[in-house]
Amino acid sequence: MLKAIFFKEWIKTRWYLLLALLVTLGFSGYGMLRIDRVVTLKGVEHVWEVMLSRDTIFIDLLKYIPLLAGLLLAVVQFVPEMHKKCLKLTLHLPYSQQKMVVAMLFYGLVALLVCFGLNFLLMGVYLNGILATELQRHILLTAVPWFVAGLAAYFLVAWVCLEPTWKRRVLNLLVSLLLLRIFFLSDTPEAYNSFVPLLVVFTLLTATLSWLSVCRFKIGKQD
Questions:
Q1: SS3 60
Q2: 45: number of Cβ within 10 Å
Q3: Of 107, 136, 148, 150, which residue is the least packed, with the fewest Cβ within 10 Å?
């Protein structure tokens, strides 16, 4: 049954995931090209000087891309479930409803982790060739909360999409926006270093919210 669920989710999301991978890698690659351009014109020493004196990380354009990637994956994955009333049929299958919802969310989590992991691999491989370890870490650790925000956006928007009533959807959306704001309170590089473990725990907890919406759907809530 789990294989069937994963295959169903893959059929729904495969083209979006390809697009998300290309777009996120494109922005990550552009950040690396910015560094490469500075290295070509002024030398790698100038990159170090700019990073140390101005706290520049060169990947600022990537900041909200993982957030959008996670948000849109939830929309692509769960809006059809509600619009075409597929969720009702899915929940009537001879399988644990809770495990089914967990499997659907787990699929999205793994898909995003693969996508985001490839972005870190791209940046890490390039940066390893031109920057000291400390400066590599400075750039990559600054980006970590942005990618965790992408996972949180996925879980929170899934919660919104699975909610059966529009009034609650609007409320859930407002709550989600406030929660996602936590990931972007500071523009200072590495400002979230000590909070990353808490952000990860917080993100995993947001996954449980979708079950609340599914429970309301099961009992036919309309308000």
A1: helix
A2: 9
A3: 136
| Token couple for 182 | 């936590």
Q: Which two tokens stand for residue 218?
A: 């099961």
Core vs surface per residue 123-142: b (16+ CB within 10 A) or e: beebbeeebeeebbebbbbb
Which stretches within the chain are classed as H helix? 2-42, 44-54, 65-83, 86-91, 97-128, 133-162, 166-181, 196-206, 209-218
Q: How far is CA 110 from CA 38, 106, 117, 124, 193, in A?
A: 35, 6, 10, 20, 23
User: What pLDDT does 178 receive?
Assistant: 96
Say if residues 148 and 196 touch (Cβ distance below 8 Å): yes
- Burial status of residue 211 (CB atoms within 10 A of its CB: 0-12, 13-18, 19 or more): middle
Quote the CA–CA distance of 16 and 70 in Å, as a whole number. 11
In whole numbers, what is the pLDDT of the chain averaged over residues?
89
| Whole-prediction pTM | 0.92
Output the pLDDT for position 54: 79
Question: Which DSSP string do the residues of 128-158 spell out, in sequence order?
Answer: HTTS-HHHHHHHHHHHHHHHHHHHHHHHHHH
**Number of Cα atoms under 13 Å in the Cβ half of residue 48:** 8
What whole-number distance in Å separates Cα of residue 203 and Cα of residue 199?
Answer: 6
Average pLDDT estimate for 129-142 = 88
Token readout for 129 is: 């060739």
Task: Say if CB 191 and CB 57 are below 8 A apart.
Answer: no
pLDDT at 91: 63
